[in-house]
Amino acid sequence: MKHILSYLKHYRREAVLGPFFKLIEAMFDLFVPLVVAAIIDQGIGAGDRGYVFRASGILVLLAFLGLVFAILAQYFAARAAVGTAEAMRYALFEKANRLSFSDLDRLGTSTVITRLTGDTNQVQTGINMVLRLFLRSPFIVFGAMIMAFTVDVRSALVFAVAIPLLSVAVFAIMLISIPLYRRVQARLDTVLLKTRESLSGARVMRAFCREGAEVDEFGRENRALSAIQKLSGRISSLMNPVTYLLINIAIIALLQVGAIRIDSGELTQGQLIALYNYMTQILVELIKLANLIITTTKAFASARRIGNVLDMTPSLSLLPDDGTRHDTHAVAFDRVCLTYPGAGAPSLSGISFTADRGETVGIIGGTGSGKTSLVNLIPHFYDATEGRVTVDGQDVKTMDTVTLRQRIGIVPQKALLFRGTVRENLLWGNENATDEQIEEALAAAVALDVVASKGGLDAAVLEGGSNFSGGQRQRLSIARALVRRPEILILDDSASALDYATDAKLRRALKELSYHPTVFIVSQRTSSLQHADRIVVLEDGEAIGIGTHEELLADCEVYREIYDSQYRGGEVTA
């Protein structure tokens, strides 16, 4: 609730004017039965056609004024609701981009997407409904009852009995429905998660012929969602018949009492019609109020889920810089350990090595040995559990993350391009880069031919770069990192889709870069690393060998086994 109010406060004027105009509209609605009663009693009853026309003009005027104020109320309520949802959606997106990798791993991508879309839209609907109906519905209910007492006290006693009974029925159904709607939302989240996984992993599913199994599992989740929706729907569907039954009983009682009083001359026909109209107004508004409360409950549940994300404190440690510089190396690992949240064992243990400016450091090891975890510590994507990672002698935990990452060019394992053009993707590295600088980066990434074959820098890129091959995406991703002219370049197994000749050209081009960055290359190929100044061999998160290619061949059994297996497999080194 506090988050809704914090964003809604910027729309105080709209939040006041919306309900205010709605109350004025409600006042006009309450006067309509009285005018109708006057038409029947003083116009039709007395045969005064002039009075009927004049009173009918008043009805048209009331309808017109009610329409004007209803439109004004809707306008201001919509402005407040849409504006609040926009600000909340922006805050969520900004928060998601400030969370650490650990936080995002814990939350899950589907959770963030659901909060940004479905939950935010639910909050928007809730705000709109509250501003329009929260005051109007109770005002009409109690106003109609008061107006009924001004018409005839004895007949209005029916209202005093009917309204509590209607309220009990409506709110009883509502209280049963609310928990069910919460379960519906939880089931819907599960179905959305399953849908996203199935669509994003469609190729893997088909490769392993798992379409049938996935369809069956989706069917189970979908049936569970359908079952809880049907149950909540059945209970909610009782609302209309129960309320209409009670209101019709009340109308029968009202007509009976009214007929007796009309017969005795204590009540007119017009007054009875007015009482009948007030009864129907109460029925309509009670149903609206019940729907409002259900919608508001959903909105509060969504706001609570959004608040859980907004209240998250990024888990990355940001310590004050005391001016201490621990060494003069470009990058240094000092007894570094890393344990992911909830993991049973550390992913990295006791890693220590250095890299100087212009050096190339290779990282190699088996699957799950901690290669990506190691390089992810340099840009401070994760906090080292123990030890220290420094850049130019300064602990990365004391560095501003934006400043630190602007000095680093990163090419992740999965080469991802964004929808747009080749130029727009490359400008992510440096938005002020000229075409000459872009072409220089493309040449270093051996990607000039890729761009030329697609029609130049303004060639279209589909979502995820799906109109490029895996190797082309990798080369463009490397070019995007090189456009920045980084001090530190991290290539996380980013040449796995390249043939050996292109891989060799890439490594030679990186060696010839004029600004001589410190390069970290994560690879499974010994041929990609053998010319590195230093190679770190990882096994089960530990550095079991650090040295040059020749030194590791002589002293590190694991490295020698990797090399021999690839050599015997026919790999050609370059």
Per the CATH scheme, the topology name of the largest domain is ABC transporter transmembrane region fold
Mean pLDDT: 87
As a whole number of angstroms, the C-alpha radius of gyration is: 35 Å
Name the CATH homologous superfamily of the largest domain: ABC transporter type 1, transmembrane domain
Structural class per helix/strand content? Answer: alpha/beta
Question: What is the count of β-strands?
Answer: 12
Ranges where pLDDT stays below 50 over 5 or more residues in a row are 570-574
Measured between the Cα atoms of the first and last residue, the distance is: 63 Å
Task: Describe the largest sheet.
Answer: 6 strands, mixed
**What general form does the structure show?**
elongated
Side by side, the strands of the main sheet go: 6-9-10-3-11-12
Q: Could you write a compact summary of the structure shown?
A:
The protein is 64% helix and 10% strand. With 574 residues, it is an alpha/beta fold.
Structure characterization notes:
The protein is of the alpha/beta class and 574 residues long. The protein folds into three domains: 309 residues, ABC transporter transmembrane region fold; 169 residues, Rossmann fold, CATH 3.40.50; 73 residues, 3-Layer(aba) Sandwich (Rossmann fold). It has 21 helices and twelve strands. It has a six-stranded mixed sheet with strand order 6-9-10-3-11-12. A four-stranded antiparallel sheet has the order 2-1-4-5, with no helix packed on it. A two-stranded antiparallel ribbon has the order 7-8. Strand 4 and strand 5 form a beta hairpin. The radius of gyration is 35 Å and the shape is elongated. The protein starts with a helix and ends in a 6-residue tail after the last helix.
